[in-house]
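Morning. Coffee machine broken again, so started the prediction first thing and wrote up yesterday's gels while waiting. Chain of 188 residues, entered below exactly as on the submission form.
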Amino acid sequence: MGQRFAPYANTLASKLGVEVVPYGCSGWTTTQLLRSVDCEKCIDVCGMENPGLRVALRAGEREGRPYTGVILMAGTNDLADGVAPHDIAANLLRLHATAREMHCRSVAIGIPDSAFCSACPEPNTIRLSTNALLTAAADGVNLAYIDCPLQFDRHNGFWERDGLHLSPSGSEALALGIASDVQQALCV
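Came back before lunch.
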C-alpha cells in the first residue's frame, strides 16, 4: 500500500488557482463507492474518514460553498477482483450521474496503469476496456473523460514501491498532466 499520501488535488488547486478538495476512499471498489454515496462517514483501508459523494456535495451547499465540479479517478481496486469492464463503467457512470444531479460538472480520469496491469494481461485488458467504455459514453451523458497521463515505469519515480499507488511526485505529475483538460471541462 502507498505510504506517502499526497493527493493530486493539492497541485491541481495550485495550478488552476481554485479550491480543490480531496475526498477519497483508498482501497475501495466502485461498488463500495456507489453504495456509500449517502453515508455520513466512510472509512477507507487507511483509516481515513470521508463522507459519501452526495453527502459531501450537500454539505458544500449547506455551508454556502457549493461544489461546481467533481473529478473521479476510481476503478483500480475492481481490477484485482476481476470485475467486468461494463460493471465498473456502469458504477462510475452512476457516480458521475450523482455529481450531475447535484449540479456539478463531472470529469472521469481513466483507470491508471500500474505494475499490476503491466505484469498481468487480464487486469490490463479490464482497465483498457473500462476506459474505452467511459470514453464512448462520455459525450452522451455530459461527462468529460481524460485518460490518465501516466504510464507505469518503475524507474520514473511516479510510483510507490508497490507499483500501484502514486508517489508524491507521481501525484504532482498527474495533476500537471490533467490540469488543462480539467480547466476546460470544468470551465475554471
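The chain has a mean pLDDT of 95. Going to sketch it on the whiteboard this afternoon.
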